[in-house]
Amino acid sequence: MITVQDIMTREVITVTPDMEIVAAAKVLMDNHINGAPVVNEDRQVIGILCRDDLISQQKELPLPSFFVVLDGIIPLSSSKHIEKEMEKIAATTVRHAMTADPTTVTEDTPIEVIASLMVDKKIHTIPVLDKDDVLVGVIGKEDILRTLIPK
Length: 151
What we know:
With 151 residues, this protein is of the alpha+beta class. The protein contains 7 helices and 8 strands.
């Protein structure tokens, strides 16, 4: 059975929460990666920044939709969702653009579980943590695809 430790990337490129968006975008582009874990001073993962998070900045400001019934206004979307979208669009630092509390795995997670997580949750990059919740690697879709190619 193949596990994360067999195929993960151990030399992880990370970003910090206070890094400017432009600098973080350059890190992703220069290293040809889809995403990078956001880590604090103790190398604990507090979020993940993906290209999708950066592309969100190019979206138009979402206008809330309302439904009017008997002169009552009923919102069709959550105000928290609209607030989060506006925060991503206006972000100047990684902290405001990142996805907080990302899905993570441990080194002994089977590849089948990783594949399911990636497909079901539409994730491209998953941080790998040790027993102390410290970042030790990252696994991406490319790592899984490599297992299909005979050596």
